[in-house]
């Protein structure tokens, strides 16, 4: 009942606010962190934008507050993440809306006093509003430590001539940030370099202005990269507290799209380790011809597969538009769904490989289940995640260049049935053990959460 909820809330001594960037890959880890902190006795208030608004019904244990985001309709409709980040921050800085909402959230005396607010690094405008109200901020980085370390190095990368990237130097090693090459550095030759530079420098500023940084990674995965961040940043704590999806008690509940659960029954009927799970995340898109090559590559591989084809996966069309004859060709062996309960799928016994775009969450989720990967990065940090998968952890390989059905079918065979895939699978199993170790009591991520809770109570 309502009054029972109030009583329970009052028992919690402190409260944290959380404000994710409104994209799936940023929402998931923030709500997982919120769940972990709630499990440690803290009350949680979730602030969210109207754009990609969250559904409070999915988390009855949290309080939800909507914040006007001021994103112009045409920018929102573009779906392009960097312009949306910049437009949202500009609108928030131009109005007092965030300040006013925050002030009223802080004044709510039906709630325990707020210790701090966890924000996405892309919300500098929110950091400034909190700071004006005397509320400390903590940043959750939803990408890798390598990625944030690269953000910090951005001025140096420009200064030393790596950026903007030149077509002839894409494979030049960046000796300051091994094992990255120029092509792995967050940008492509078609990026709007000024926009990228602005977004990354604002993200670094958000962290520098905050009382600590939590990175969704773990020590054994990125020790050198975490060290680099700690050397370069002067903030009270830098904690590696991931993989958050493994620490959080719930695996679902923050999907913006409806999960098609029919795939779980389908997986139940497949042989152990036989299925390739294929997903390119929540944002990546391709053209109709590429979709066609992917489809026939899957069909020609002969391998069982589960493929997520979002309604907006193909640029400029509504609906998947799979090639004629495809359904018949893969009948009984392949399944296509609009959105998956991904973490459950990856943990299913039938899944033996992951063809991914290497968004950081997907990468961590694959690593957490000990799955070898075919990597097909599209943009942002996906190229560098792929580089780490291939050259550092050895748990997969990149499918480079133009998408062609023959190449795709061969890559799938290589991953699922050949020696190279077997080696990647062995490495992936080793890495899965390291994930388990960091989550045990006394493990590095559990200690990081202890330290985080202690830090929160000191604020
Ligand atoms: N995801 C999901 N169902 C799908 C595809 C993706 O639940 O069918 C989730 C996935 O588990 C991950 C998130 O969406 O947590 C995607 O984040 P990621 O960083 O991998 O990529 P992005 O979408 O940001 O490119």
From TrEMBL:
Keywords for the protein's UniProt record, in alphabetical order: Transferase
Protein name: Glycosyltransferase
MF GO annotations: quercetin 3-O-glucosyltransferase activity; quercetin 7-O-glucosyltransferase activity
Keyword Transferase: yes
Assigned GO CC terms: cytoplasm
Similarity comment: Belongs to the UDP-glycosyltransferase family.
PANTHER family per UniProt: GLUCOSYL/GLUCURONOSYL TRANSFERASES (PTHR11926), OS07G0241500 PROTEIN (PTHR11926:SF1451)
Domain of life assignment: Eukaryota
InterPro entries in alphabetical order: UDP_glucos_trans (IPR002213)
């Amino acid at each position: 009942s309502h009054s029972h909820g109030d009583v329970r809330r009052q028992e919690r001594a402190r409260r944290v606010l959380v404000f994710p960037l409104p994209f799936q890959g940023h929402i998931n880890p923030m709500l997982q962190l919120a769940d972990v902190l709630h499990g440690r006795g803290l009350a949680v208030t979730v602030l969210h934008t109207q754009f990609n608004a969250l559904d409070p019904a999915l988390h009855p244990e949290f309080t939800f507050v909507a914040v006007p985001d001021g994103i112009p309709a045409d920018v929102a409709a573009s779906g392009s993440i960097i312009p949306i980040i910049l437009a949202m921050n500009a609108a928030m800085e131009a109005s007092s809306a965030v300040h006013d909402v925050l002030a009223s959230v802080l004044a709510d005396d039906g709630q325990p006093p707020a210790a701090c607010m966890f924000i996405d690094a892309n919300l500098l405008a929110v950091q400034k509003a909190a700071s004006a109200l005397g509320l400390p901020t903590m940043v959750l980085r939803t990408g890798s430590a390598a990625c944030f370390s690269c953000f910090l190095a951005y001025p140096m990368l420009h200064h030393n001539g790596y950026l903007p990237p030149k077509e002839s130097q894409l494979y030049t090693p960046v000796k300051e940030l091994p094992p990255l090459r120029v092509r792995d550095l967050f940008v492509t030759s078609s990026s709007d370099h000024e926009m990228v530079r602005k977004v990354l420098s604002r993200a670094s500023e958000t962290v520098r202005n905050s009382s600590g940084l939590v990175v969704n990674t773990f020590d054994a995965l990125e020790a050198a990269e975490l060290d680099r961040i700690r050397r370069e940043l002067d903030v009270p704590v830098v904690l590696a507290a991931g993989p958050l999806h493994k620490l959080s008690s719930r695996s679902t509940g923050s999907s913006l799209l409806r999960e098609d659960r029919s795939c779980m029954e389908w997986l139940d009927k497949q042989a152990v380790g036989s299925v390739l799970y294929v997903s390119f995340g929540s944002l990546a898109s391709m053209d109709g011809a590429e979709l066609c090559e992917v489809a026939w590559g899957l069909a020609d591989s002969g391998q069982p597969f589960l493929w997520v084809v979002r309604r907006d996966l193909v640029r400029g069309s509504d609906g998947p538009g799979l090639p004629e004859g495809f359904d018949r060709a893969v009948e009984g062996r392949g399944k296509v769904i609009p959105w998956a309960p991904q973490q459950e799928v990856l943990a299913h016994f039938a899944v033996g490989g992951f063809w991914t775009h290497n968004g950081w969450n997907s990468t961590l989720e694959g690593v957490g289940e000990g799955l070898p990967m075919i990597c097909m990065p599209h943009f942002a940090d996906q190229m560098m995640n792929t580089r780490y998968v291939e050259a550092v952890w050895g748990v997969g390989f990149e499918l480079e260049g133009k998408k062609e059905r023959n190449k795709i079918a061969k890559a799938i065979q290589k991953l699922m049935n050949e020696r190279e895939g077997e080696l990647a699978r062995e490495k992936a199993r080793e890495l899965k053990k390291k994930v388990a170790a960091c989550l045990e009591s006394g493990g590095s991520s559990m200690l990081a959460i202890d330290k985080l809770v202690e830090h929160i109570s000191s604020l």
